Amino acid sequence: MDLREGQTQPILDPNQPSHVYHLALDIGGSLAKLVYFTKDDDHLVDGEEGISHRKAFEKSNGSKQYPVLNGRLNFKKFETSKINDCIEFIKSMKLHIGGSQPQENPGSQSIAIKATGGGAYKYADLFKERLGIIFDKEDEMDCLVAGANFLLEVVHQEAFTYMGDQKQFVQIDQNDLYPYLLVNIGSGVGMIKVEGEGKFERVSGTSIGGGTFWGLGKLLTECKSFDELLDLSYRGNNRAVDMLVGDIYGGMDYSKIGLSSTAIASSFGKAISDNKEREDYKPEDIARSLLRMISNNIGQISYLNALRFGMKRIFFGGFFIRRHPFTMDTLSVAVNFWSKGEAKAMFLRHEGFLGGVGAFMSSDKHGLKELLAHQVVQRSLSKLSFAVDKILHGSPDGDFNGDESIECSVYAA
């Protein structure tokens, strides 16, 4: 993190085991996401590694030199409906104290924090009242794209495909990353054509997204949270609720147009002909049908938009996916089916934190990315900060559930 001239050093709490040097928030309609950096110890990096980083930064910034701090980039999420839990977490961890610098009035105790998402406006007064935080607001789409570009360019094994229970990491060629379609599945769905750094356009979207799944799921089942609903769907059988091609054709395929007997002809369609009441259907089957309906719809619309612009690479992000195997498989099958295998659905390990990472990056337009990109060149992948988080050390498939942290280094003035 490059602290520019005229800015003060972060206030550090000596009682904290890891000092917070920066905090950014992305507050959406369903979830509030935090991204913050903590320093592992109380000394700056020295030796050859630290010197090489300083030289790399010095090259693009004249004679200025910034020492390097080793630490971790941390990720944390909260339900937006429980925003007070998020505030209490920030307060208990004292994240806001070292999060940024006081704003223009030197006598003010207010702290400026980078924030994006609708909640940066909706909850601005609440955060100011409770924590003395003033949100320095960043455009939501700018942050989303910047976060995706950064992670795809810098983080090893960030992108992967998933279909038929097979997960395969994709090696991203930085020279061949663009263009791509970024599909961000939050409460609603935004589809963005990304052509380069700062060069993007929102080309489509749909209101049928994660909020639809959660909202209808809450009405149709007794689930109290998004994750509970996802877990419930994993145990369900959508064939008990959905009308299949085979139900219409007496168990036969509709081979002339390439539809198998198990293809869904009508989501929830079986409820029309069944002589049953709602309570006769299992909640897990309803949840499964609902998840599949929404995932199929998003997958199809995504491919059609990719087709409009001749793009064969589609990255899906957003906390709707939640690393849920059935969700990823359904999206992949939909893209594969409609594209006849020509387009690929790809997923991101840090799927729900794209906006938060972009907001974090907005405090330092060049220094952090240059440092981490330099690490990619200078260090082996097995030791690459930021590229290898602690989940990779404990899990062979590199899963990430959103509350872990990543080793990295930042610049400090």
TrEMBL record:
<dbReference type="GO" id="GO:0005634">
    <property type="term" value="C:nucleus"/>
</dbReference>
<dbReference type="GO" id="GO:0005829">
    <property type="term" value="C:cytosol"/>
</dbReference>
<dbReference type="GO" id="GO:0005524">
    <property type="term" value="F:ATP binding"/>
</dbReference>
<keyword id="KW-0808">Transferase</keyword>
<dbReference type="InterPro" id="IPR043129">
    <property type="entry name" value="ATPase_NBD"/>
</dbReference>
<keyword id="KW-0418">Kinase</keyword>
<dbReference type="InterPro" id="IPR004567">
    <property type="entry name" value="Type_II_PanK"/>
</dbReference>
<protein>
    <submittedName>
        <fullName>Pantothenate kinase 2</fullName>
        <ecNumber>2.7.1.33</ecNumber>
    </submittedName>
</protein>
<dbReference type="GO" id="GO:0004594">
    <property type="term" value="F:pantothenate kinase activity"/>
</dbReference>
<dbReference type="GO" id="GO:0015937">
    <property type="term" value="P:coenzyme A biosynthetic process"/>
</dbReference>
<dbReference type="Pfam" id="PF03630">
    <property type="entry name" value="Fumble"/>
</dbReference>
